[in-house]
Amino acid sequence: MTQQQKIEMDYLVDDLTQDVAKLLMQDRQCDIAEALNIVYNSRTYSALENPETGLFYQSAVYLYDLLLEELKQKKTNHQRFSTQHQPREQKTCQGAHNASKTNKKK
Q1: Is 106 within a domain?
Q2: What is the pLDDT of residues 45-80, one digit of tens each?
Q3: 99: number of CA atoms within 13 Å, CB side?
């Protein structure tokens, strides 16, 4: 990639990032700081910065749809993880706590 191509890509990435953040602000009624935080910490943004993906040639709406899918997947995975793992941790902790009480009584 030439220096000129890098400059053009950086410009497109910055412009698209602003547009995607604006769409996020409108949909989620959040402020610019929160919207940019979500965008910058996404896999979508990482892919956008990678010249090999060519995502910087896509529209902001397309990138926003990718981001929404990513956020849905994260939420689903988080919920799945929480429901699968949290009860086990609680049982283990309660079980260990109860076992120590039982051992003290003996």
Answers
A1: no
A2: 999 999 999 999 999 999 999 999 999 998 887 776
A3: 6
